[in-house]
Amino acid sequence: MAVWETIAGWMWYSAIFILSAVLILFACYCLYIKYIHQKYDHIPGPPRKSFLFGHGPIFVEEMKRDRLVHEKFLEWTEKYGPVYRLNVLHYVTVVTVDPEATKEILMSPKYPKDPTVYKRLFNLFGQRFLGNGLVTVADHDLWYKQRRIMDPAFSSSYLRGLMGIFNEKAERLMVKLAEMADKQTPAHMHGLVNCVTLDVITKVAFGVDLDMVNNNNLPFPNAIELCLKGMVYYLRDPMYEFLPWNRKVVQDIKEAAHLLRRTGRAWINERKKAMDNGEDVPKDILTQIFKSAEETKFDDDSQELMLDNFVTFFIAGQETTANQLSFAIMELGKHPEIMKRLKAEVDEVLGKRQEILYEDLGKLTYLSQVLKETLRLYPTAPGTSRWVDDDMVIDGIKIPGGFVVLFDSYITGRLDRFYKDPLTFDPERFAPDAPKPYFCYYPFALGPRSCLGQVFSQMEAKVVMAKLLQRFDYSLAPGQPLDIEDIGTLRPRGGVICRMKQRD
């Protein structure tokens, strides 16, 4: 009996000691948060919702109400000015639209990507997701090595050779739309252009022909959407995965991420087998992914890095282009006078010729303006962030080092300090003789970490839009929502439902 009393007493004192230690550590952490608040509270900003979680609960509330968090950022910018502060736990984020700070930070390799955000996307609820892929890797040397290897797959000479694939995949969509026009079936344009961009990236990047336009029962679009939504939950609500009612959604997201990596593993192994057998393989992204791992043996680590880049290109190579096309189709439906002018340009450049040549793209100048204006109002990947280690002065405010700076092109595109009547869709803002925006327009980011595939994306968008306008008249179905859905990227909420009619 005495032994059990001794053990019970020891367990009791141990529990008290552990609890005391936890409380002391928590008190020290709270003091540290208080110190951080005092260090940065000279910077204007909205009131914190919570001492411990700072502005985090506001982001969670916006997400639960299915509202666009970038609208909240825009509201705060208009209220607090071009530089303001946000707190979450002991992290400090400075949001700025100051063009000089944008130029200095984004154009310099001195400022790495924010490790807090991008390292968190290494996994998605415990399932490896983007890992150390080209977009998320924070280490500059590792990024530079991967970027240098990937560059040939996006050279102008290589992209010129992709026009046949762009035409072929876009033509499948035109055939599908012609069938829907004949049957007077409403066309859900976002889903359809999503299939086209997915067809293009899988063929161009990985040598696989999915034909999603005519085979839309494949799981990839749903898996990509689940992963993108999972990124939002994972980044904006740290408690999301621990709430029991979210367990099913979390499991679905993990399975979606696993599906993408499993698909990548199968395609990579198939390509490796072809290379080992001495077969000719295209100099596509998948070949470059192999080169990025050739300095190491074909072991588990190098395979995981290849899968990181596979998932990165699989998602980034189609999602943002599809969203841009959807928003452009939506805005043209709202502005028939702009659509009429654009059709006249397409008719002048192409006539009745259905095959679009590389040389045609440069002649479609008004289409370029429309696509740029679309990205001004609807930047499909609206934000990027950098880590600032040293003290810095932004717009006259001295900011101590050790903070994250957030650049949001959704905000800059909708501020009247940069654009007259910013909510008006006006492609003339990007006319050849119009003044260029000064470091307030960066839908593909800026500087060394800008989007590698931006030229690829705009070539593809031009081919799809030119074919669509050459062959069809369309109008937006009445009553559908025309606002924005935030799933990490921005997309039209209603899917852009159109009534199609073939042109004479």
Automatic annotation (TrEMBL):
<keyword id="KW-0492">Microsome</keyword>
<dbReference type="InterPro" id="IPR001128">
    <property type="entry name" value="Cyt_P450"/>
</dbReference>
<protein>
    <recommendedName>
        <fullName>Cholesterol 24-hydroxylase</fullName>
        <ecNumber>1.14.14.25</ecNumber>
    </recommendedName>
</protein>
<keyword id="KW-0443">Lipid metabolism</keyword>
<dbReference type="GO" id="GO:0098793">
    <property type="term" value="C:presynapse"/>
</dbReference>
<dbReference type="GO" id="GO:0030425">
    <property type="term" value="C:dendrite"/>
</dbReference>
<dbReference type="InterPro" id="IPR002401">
    <property type="entry name" value="Cyt_P450_E_grp-I"/>
</dbReference>
<dbReference type="InterPro" id="IPR036396">
    <property type="entry name" value="Cyt_P450_sf"/>
</dbReference>
<comment type="similarity">
    <text>Belongs to the cytochrome P450 family.</text>
</comment>
<dbReference type="GO" id="GO:0005789">
    <property type="term" value="C:endoplasmic reticulum membrane"/>
</dbReference>
<dbReference type="InterPro" id="IPR039983">
    <property type="entry name" value="CYP46A1"/>
</dbReference>
<dbReference type="GO" id="GO:0005506">
    <property type="term" value="F:iron ion binding"/>
</dbReference>
<keyword id="KW-0472">Membrane</keyword>
<keyword id="KW-0966">Cell projection</keyword>
<dbReference type="GO" id="GO:0020037">
    <property type="term" value="F:heme binding"/>
</dbReference>
<dbReference type="GO" id="GO:0033781">
    <property type="term" value="F:cholesterol 24-hydroxylase activity"/>
</dbReference>
<dbReference type="Pfam" id="PF00067">
    <property type="entry name" value="p450"/>
</dbReference>
<keyword id="KW-0349">Heme</keyword>
<keyword id="KW-0408">Iron</keyword>
<comment type="pathway">
    <text>Steroid metabolism; cholesterol degradation.</text>
</comment>
<dbReference type="GO" id="GO:0098794">
    <property type="term" value="C:postsynapse"/>
</dbReference>
<keyword id="KW-1133">Transmembrane helix</keyword>
<feature type="binding site" description="axial binding residue">
    <location>
        <position position="451"/>
    </location>
    <ligand>
        <name>heme</name>
    </ligand>
</feature>
<keyword id="KW-0256">Endoplasmic reticulum</keyword>
<keyword id="KW-0153">Cholesterol metabolism</keyword>
<keyword id="KW-1207">Sterol metabolism</keyword>
<keyword id="KW-0560">Oxidoreductase</keyword>
<keyword id="KW-0503">Monooxygenase</keyword>
<keyword id="KW-0812">Transmembrane</keyword>
<comment type="pathway">
    <text>Lipid metabolism; C21-steroid hormone metabolism.</text>
</comment>
<comment type="function">
    <text>P450 monooxygenase that plays a major role in cholesterol homeostasis in the brain. By promoting constant cholesterol elimination in neurons, may activate the mevalonate pathway and coordinate the synthesis of new cholesterol and nonsterol isoprenoids involved in synaptic activity and learning.</text>
</comment>
<feature type="transmembrane region" description="Helical">
    <location>
        <begin position="12"/>
        <end position="32"/>
    </location>
</feature>
<dbReference type="GO" id="GO:0006707">
    <property type="term" value="P:cholesterol catabolic process"/>
</dbReference>
<keyword id="KW-0770">Synapse</keyword>
<keyword id="KW-0479">Metal-binding</keyword>
<keyword id="KW-0753">Steroid metabolism</keyword>
